[in-house]
Each structure stands twice: as structure tokens, then as C-alpha cells.
Amino acid sequence: MSDGTGSPLGLAAELTITVDGAAGDHDGEFGVIDPATGRVFAMAPETTAEALDTAVTAADRVFRTEWRTGEESRRAVLGAIADTLMASAGELAGVLSSEQGKSRADALDEVAVAARYARYYAENPAEREAAGPVAVITPWSFPLSIAFASIAPALRSGSTVVWKPSPHTPLSALLAGELLRSVLPPGVLNVVSGSDPLGARLVAHPLVREIGFTGSTAIGSKVAALAAGKRLTLDLSGNDPVLLLDDADPGRAAERVFAAAFRNLGQVCVGPKRVYVPASLRQPFVEALTELARAAGSGGLAPIGTRAQFDRVADLVADARAHQAVVTACAGKPDSLGYFHGRTILADVTDGVRVVDEDQFGPVLPVITYHDIDDAVQRANVSSYRPGASVFATDPDRALAVAGRLEAGTIWLGTHGTHPPEDPAPVR
Ligand code: NAD
């Protein structure tokens, strides 16, 4: 897997799509960029229309076999998927780190989370009926863990899968597809790479019965329009609010909010995206956040996943500055060709500014000062993208009372967490 230049893959497309248990046909290739350098470091196959059709047809064929009825063998297969991913964790993490930009340690964690989803559904039922071939369409932020959060329950239920990864991060998916050929019946899990129109063709394919889409709200709307009559799950953008009450410990809250907000450089759907802080705590809270950003410096700073996202984050910061936001920290921006952007704290931002109203999906955290808790709750509830929310307070009764007025999928007290597989997540 090395071309001797230090890059894990040579430029030629070595990895193949997986169609009906074997390498499928492709028509040309597209470049995959290393976000740390901004340069193409590998090529990936562009799946042909015929290969896509063969993949979906195979998924439909195997769905109609004992795959659908053989629950015990499906459990065994899911266990084997978990074992296989973990046995190749180092190789998968290397590819994932190169194409996505995250550190090797974070990439290893992500492989472990993907395996954990497979293990969980080997041991626990998926609370849904088998549908038939499921199109799993995934973004570049967590190329493996998000995919297996959909693939594992689909397989456990007796469905079969055609997985189309993001064109920014196709390599870890292609490698997983190759590794899993030896443990899956042909046709159960097909992996096809290609540019965006491939996703639209997959969604519209008449044999696809269900779509599990994770990505932007804009593309999700297009997918919904194409998916009429099919079962559809859309995991889209997030703009989670955090509320500090006036009895919160600003230092403790800052530590937890900072850790959650800058996990995966803020490229997460469920994470703190805007913090409402009472005027009495504005100074100590912003100072504590700023200190944490400075202390983190450039140590372990990963690049943003794509050029478009890097440009968007820079635009949002410039727009916030033009609207009187104060940049208290923009730490750790190395002088590099890659898409590096320091962890940025923006104080004194207001609702109505883009970085507050939109999902920044990057290493920027706006802090909004409030004077009246009822007003803050009302503003926290304004955005239409709220998979999560959190409340920080010392008095648990006050925290609970405010949490009960927030409208979000999951509401945390004193932390802003993630969804492990065993959580009753809103969708899966
Ligand atoms: P994106 O919407 O651009 O792409 C997501 C996937 O959809 C990719 O595989 C892409 O090739 C495919 N696609 C593009 N056009 C399509 C079409 N017309 N039909 C079918 N598929 C199509 O998202 P992205 O830039 O890869 O990821 C970042 C976005 O994902 C952010 O907006 C973020 O909020 C969101 N996200 C959501 C979650 C969640 O669980 N809710 C998790 C991570 C990221």
C-alpha cells in the first residue's frame, strides 16, 4: 500500500469498487486530495452506469435469498465485519487520515467506532423491517463511522446495501469493501465510488427501496425529491445551541464546550455550534475558551476536510468580523499549503449573523451574550437544524427546567455529547 513516497497510496487507482462480491468496472478516475497538502495524492474509480446497475441488481437478488430470513447468519456476518475492520484498523486508519485529514489517532478511533456499530448490531436487533436494497450515501466528515451507523442496522434487519461514499473520501470505503468481500455473501454490501451524480442515479434506481443519506441539507432536499415512494432517512446539518445559566461554572463549562465544539475540528452534525452566555459570565467564559484555544495551539491541528469547506469557514469568520464580532483566539494556523484553520473563538456575535444562523461545520465557535433567559431560549429554538442542545448550570432543577423548553433531538446537561450505538438516537 505504499508507493515509496510516504503517501499511503500511489497515484493510480489501486482500490476497486465492490460489485456483487468482486471488483466492478469503472469508467475513468477522479483525484483524491490530501487536505494537509491541497494536492491530489491518489485516484479513485468513477463507477459506470452498468456497474451501478449490476450492484443494485445483485443487492436485490441476494435480498430475496436466505439472507433475508437467516437472522443467525446475519448476526455472524456482522460479528465478522467488526473483526475484519479491527484486524485492518491500521491500514484503514492510514488511508482515512490521508484522504480526510484527521490524525492517525482520530482515524483509529473512527475505525473502532465503525466496528462498534457492527458489533452492536451483531448482538442487538435493529428495530425495523427489512426493506430491500438500501442506498447508503455518506459525507466526508466521518467516512467510516457514519457509514457503518447505517450499514450495520440495515444488514441486521435483512436488507442489503449499496454504499456510495463522498467523492472527497472514497478510499477508506473502497478499502473496507475489498476487505469485507471475504466475510460477506456476494451482493450484500456493494461499494461504488464516483462524483455526485452517481448518488442521484443510485437514489433514483427503481430497485432501491430505502435511502440512508447523511450530508448537507441542500443535497438532502434533492435526495428527498428523487426518493418519492421509498423509505428515506435524512441526517442533515446541525446548528446545536448551548445555554449557560447564570449559576454555571464558566471554567468547567468552557472546558466541556471547547472539547465538544472542536472534536473533528467542528466538522460534526451534533456539536456545539453557538453558545448563549449570560452577560454576567461573558468575560470569564470567553477568557477560559480563549485560553483553551491558545493552549491547544497548533498541536495536533488537522486540516479542514475540503477546500470548499475551508473557504466557507474563512468567509463566515470574515462576515462575523464585519458584523462587529471580536476574534479572541485564532490559534494554531500553521503556514502551509493545506486547509489549516486555527481554532477560532468569536465573542459578541449576534443572532442574524451567518456564523450563528448557519451550520459553520468547522473550527469556529460563536459566543452570543444574552440578558434575559426567556429571550435566549427563544433564540436557541429559532434554527431549523437542532439535532442536539445543552444546558450548563450548577442547580440541576434550573437546568432541567430550561432543558424542557428547548426543542432538539437530544438535550444534554453539563456536557454536549455524541450518540453511541446503544442510544435511542432519533434516527438510525
Ligand atoms: P454533501 O451533502 O455535499 O454530500 C453528501 C453525499 O451526498 C456525498 O456522498 C455526495 O457525493 C452525495 N450527493 C451529492 N449530490 C447528490 C445528489 N444529487 N443525490 C444523491 N447524492 C448526492 O455533504 P458533504 O459536504 O459530504 O458533508 C458535509 C455536510 O454533511 C454538512 O452539511 C454536515 O452538516 C452534514 N453532516 C451531517 C451529519 C449527520 O449525521 N446529520 C453528519 C456529518 C455531516
Protein model, in words:
By secondary structure, the chain is α/β, with parallel strands linked by helices. It has 2 domains: 227 residues, Aldehyde Dehydrogenase, Chain A, domain 1 (3-Layer(aba) Sandwich), CATH 3.40.605; 174 residues, Aldehyde Dehydrogenase, Chain A, domain 2, CATH 3.40.309.10. It has 15 helices and 16 strands. The strands form 4 sheets. A 7-stranded mixed sheet has the order 12-13-14-11-10-15-16, sandwiched between helices. A 5-stranded parallel sheet has the order 7-6-5-8-9, with helices on both faces. α3 runs antiparallel to α5, α4 packs across α5 and α10 packs across α11. It binds nicotinamide-adenine-dinucleotide (NAD).
Keywords:
single chain, 428 residues, alpha/beta, Aldehyde Dehydrogenase, Chain A, domain 1, Aldehyde Dehydrogenase, Chain A, domain 2, 2 domains, seven-stranded mixed beta sheet, 40% helix, 20% strand, disordered N terminus, binds nicotinamide-adenine-dinucleotide
Determine Rg (CA atoms, Å): 22 Å
Uncertain residue segments: 1-7, 424-428
Report the CATH superfamily of the largest domain: Aldehyde Dehydrogenase, Chain A, domain 1
Mean pLDDT: 93
Structural class: alpha/beta
How many distinct folded domains? 2
- At the fold tier of CATH, the topology name of the largest domain is Aldehyde Dehydrogenase, Chain A, domain 1
* Oligomeric description of these chains: single chain
How many helices? 15
- The CATH architecture of the largest domain comes to 3-Layer(aba) Sandwich
What is the beta-strand fraction?
15-25%
Classified by CATH, the class of the largest domain is: Alpha Beta
Bound chemical compounds: nicotinamide-adenine-dinucleotide
> Residue share in helices?
40-55%
Strand order of the largest sheet: 12-13-14-11-10-15-16
Q: What gross morphology would you assign?
A: globular
Intertermini distance: 34 Å
The major pleated sheet works out as: 7 strands, mixed
Task: Tell how many strands the DSSP assignment holds.
Answer: 16
